[in-house]
């Protein structure tokens, strides 16, 4: 079996690549998916494809809807959903992804530093694991997938 792992969350660090590299070292049978991580492309996709908007609300609305097609589809197909919350920005979309995955009954791994424990207590409560570092996620995946 090849496991589908959806990597959601902040896009300002290389945490995804760290998990992917560690999984490759362990020769895990996994495919990784995630959102579009090119911030400008993600923000501008709606108006680029569907036409300009003068109102910033509708500009963002168009992009959010197009991005949701990808996000909802890939989360629904995922065997495990990993959601990383970074320190620099509020990731409301990551919290939404965690809630959506939880509502679908997907196993959820949350990643964040200790400073976000209180703010994310409800999100953490829905998770099957809460990690602080990407290497812990890779270790969880190795244990769950490769242990016999």
What can you see in these coordinates?
With 148 residues, the protein is α/β, with parallel strands linked by helices. The chain has a single domain, classed as Rossmann fold. Helix content is 51%, strand content 16%. The protein has a 5-stranded parallel sheet, with helices on both faces. Strand 4, helix 5 (121-126) and strand 5 (129-131) form a beta-alpha-beta unit. It is globular.
The structural class is alpha/beta
Q: From N to C, what is the helix and strand string? A: EHEHHEHEHEH
Q: How many beta-strand elements? A: 5
Q: Work out the strand percent.
A: 15-25%
Unreliable runs: none
- The CATH class is identified as Alpha Beta
Quote the average pLDDT. Answer: 95
- What's the oligomerization state? single chain
**SS element count, helices:** 6
Q: Identify the CATH architecture.
A: 3-Layer(aba) Sandwich
General shape: globular
Radius of gyration: 16 Å
List the helices and strands and how they pair.
Elements: E1 3-9, H1 15-25, E2 30-33, H2 39-50, H3 56-77, E3 80-84, H4 92-103, E4 108-111, H5 121-126, E5 129-131, H6 134-146
Helix pairs in contact: 1-6, 2-3
